[in-house]
Amino acid sequence: MLRTYLISACILLYPVGTASAATLQHMFTFDTDENDEVGSASGNLIGGAVVSGGVLNLDGGNDYLQMSGNLLPTDGSDFTLAFQALNSRTSQSGIHEIVSQGTSGGPGFYVGNINGQVRFTDQFGAISTPTPTDGLFHDYVVTSEVGVGTKLYLDGTEVFSSATPISIGGSTPTRIGTQFNMPGATPFNEYFQGQVDNFFVFDGALGSGEVKTVFSDVVLAPVPLPPSSILLIGGFAGLAFLRRRRTVTRAQKS
Ligand SMILES: [Ca+2]
Ligand SMILES: [Ca+2]
User: Fold this and answer.
1) Residues within 5 Å of ion ligand 2 by Cβ?
2) Going from the N-terminus, what domains does the chain have, and what CATH number goes with each?
3) Tens digits of pLDDT across the chain (254 residues)
């Protein structure tokens, strides 16, 4: 009954709303385990990384989550990567990657920290945005779109853009918590210390409005989300109808 109401609402919204061309492909909420709740990717916890408290916990020493394949496209097609991360490292000296894929110069893909600044891919390097150090979760969203380029959002605000879309190799499949491998299949010593939650990959670029609500909307949406779902036909606006109901559910869990 709720679903019927929801879809009806979205059809009404469609003529005036902005339809998203992005469909959710992978979703890791870490609410119960490290498994993909939408796609078929699987994760392998390495070094003592643990899923507990509804998040992925990483000790900054040797922990990471190794995915079974490349979650981000290696053919240059459009995508969105969205995740939430809490940095608990006291010193930002050095290099630490929250997420990576590929290989050095491949070009490699990563989002992380270098000496207190956000570090973003081999293509773009360090950007003039401070690495969050307040011990709170922050929202990261990367969009790459042919003809538009690359954008990086931090907490819903665009902090970097380029007219060049992201190019990603596939040498080391996607991992959360450290850099891809150096030659010899050993990870670079660039471990992220903290927690990661709500890791999503879409097969298209979200708009700036969708970026602001992606975490609440996707987590609140029924899963899995097929292409014919609300995400495609009605954008994110209609998902707000579920917000109150699922917020209650989440509050009861915690
Ligand atoms: Ca460890
Ligand atoms: Ca979670």
Assistant:
1) 29-31, 54, 197
2) 26-207 (2.60.120.200)
3) 333 333 333 322 232 334 568 999 999 999 999 999 999 998 999 999 999 999 999 999 999 999 999 999 999 999 999 999 999 999 999 999 999 999 998 889 999 999 999 999 999 999 999 999 999 999 999 999 999 999 999 999 999 999 999 999 889 999 999 999 998 889 999 999 999 999 999 999 999 999 999 999 998 876 555 555 445 444 444 443 333 333 333 333 32
Q: How far is the CA of 230 from the centre of ligand 1 (A)?
A: 40
Ligand 1 centre to CA of 64 (Å) is 8
Please give the helix or strand (H or E) that residue 126 lies within, else none. strand 126-130
How far apart are alpha carbons 191 and 199 in whole angstroms?
17
| Pairing outcome for strands 55-59 and 193-202 | antiparallel
Ligand nearest to the CA of 57: 1
Q: How far is the CA of 96 from the centre of ligand 1 (A)?
A: 15
Within the chain, what is the greatest distance between any pair of CA atoms? 56
